[in-house]
């Protein structure tokens, strides 16, 4: 664990379709917060975005794991991520007895954002900004629940990949980062869990096509944080909440991405 005793936990969107798993996660977070652990929850919601785009007759295009976000899709994306996904998680937190604050990336200038690349449309890249807003909430023992929607200096709403969003928040708070997904961690070509990965092994697995799509974005965000902070980043499943509690007490978890 890091020196600030802060854990940034990112959950992928598939969790939001499983109420029992959300309840289990919130119960685990409640016990961690009661034990004095500071926790920030950053969330995705890619599958809810998919559903809403489909319901509105829109096509989804992804480039290197990132959703191309044209202007005529941004209302739907913001609604699905900063609205439905954020409030589903806040509801689960409140039901579990956790004091939770729903927020998005640019609240209190926590991060600053700009358009990542013209061909991606309204997709943002973010860098750490001012930690004061998050630090205040953590000092109260509250759980900030942060969506991956940002706003740039021109007022444009931007869609940020949630793993990259969590990486920026972890850097902002000098925190330990855990990325929880619907798989036990990074899997090898025969679908076995890889316990440790360094930069060289990651490059090899990416060029072999074993790590691809959303996992490629995730592993690269994890490596970036690990190398900048010197603290390993773990990729694991949100299904095993006991393992998460164990991790807060020093037990290994999923795949460890090493600096
Ligand atoms: N080597 C790999 N190990 C595990 N999952 C992988 C790998 N390569 C690709 N994936 C895919 O990446 C997915 C996780 O990324 P993503 O869908 O973006 O998750 P999340 O929504 O949790 O961020 C897995 O469900 C799996 O389909
Ligand atoms: C630019 C970009 O790709 N944004 C993502 C944001 C949500 C996300 O990352 O959700 P998961 O963590 O559930 O995958 C998207 O639109 O799907």
TrEMBL record:
It catalyses: N-acetyl-L-glutamate + ATP = N-acetyl-L-glutamyl 5-phosphate + ADP. GO terms for molecular function: acetylglutamate kinase activity; ATP binding. InterPro entries: AceGlu_kinase-like_sf, AcgluKinase_fam, ArgB, Asp/Glu/Uridylate_kinase. One of its GO terms (biological process) is L-arginine biosynthetic process via ornithine. It is found in: Cytoplasm. Its EC number is 2.7.2.8. GO terms for cellular component: cytoplasm. Keywords: Amino-acid biosynthesis, Arginine biosynthesis, ATP-binding, Cytoplasm, Kinase, Nucleotide-binding, Transferase. It holds the Pfam family AA_kinase. Substrate binds at residues 45-46, 67, 159. It comes from the Bacteria. It is an enzyme of class 2 (transferase). Pathway: Amino-acid biosynthesis; L-arginine biosynthesis; N(2)-acetyl-L-ornithine from L-glutamate: step 2/4. Belongs to the acetylglutamate kinase family. ArgB subfamily. PANTHER family: N-ACETYLGLUTAMATE SYNTHASE, N-ACETYLGLUTAMATE SYNTHASE, MITOCHONDRIAL. NCBIfam families: argB (TIGR00761). Catalyzes the ATP-dependent phosphorylation of N-acetyl-L-glutamate. This is Acetylglutamate kinase. It comes from Shewanella maritima.
């Amino acid at each position: 664990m890091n020196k600030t005793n802060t854990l940034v936990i990112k959950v992928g969107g598939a969790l939001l379709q499983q109420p029992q798993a959300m309840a289990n996660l919130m119960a685990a977070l409640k016990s961690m917060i009661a034990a004095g652990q500071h926790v920030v929850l950053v969330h995705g919601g890619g599958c809810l975005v998919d559903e809403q785009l489909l319901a509105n007759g829109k096509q989804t295009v992804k480039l290197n794991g990132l959703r191309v976000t044209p202007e005529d899709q941004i209302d739907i994306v913001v609604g699905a991520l900063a609205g439905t996904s954020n409030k589903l998680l806040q509801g689960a937190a409140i039901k579990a007895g956790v004091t939770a604050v729903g927020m998005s990336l640019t609240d209190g200038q926590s991060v600053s954002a700009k358009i990542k690349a013209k061909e991606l449309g309204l997709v943002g890249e973010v860098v750490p900004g001012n930690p004061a807003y998050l630090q205040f909430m953590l000092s109260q023992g509250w759980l900030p629940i942060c969506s991956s929607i940002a706003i740039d200096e021109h007022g444009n709403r931007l869609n940020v990949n949630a793993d990259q969003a969590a990486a920026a928040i972890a850097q902002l708070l000098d925190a330990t980062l855990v990325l929880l997904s619907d798989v036990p961690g990074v899997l090898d070509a025969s679908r076995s869990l890889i316990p440790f990965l360094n930069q060289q092994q990651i490059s090899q697995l990416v060029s072999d096509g074993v790590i691809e799509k959303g996992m490629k974005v995730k592993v690269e965000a994890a490596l970036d944080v690990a190398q900048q902070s010197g603290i390993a980043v773990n990729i694991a499943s949100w299904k095993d909440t006991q393992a998460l509690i164990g991790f807060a007490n020093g037990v290994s978890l999923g795949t460890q991405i090493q600096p």
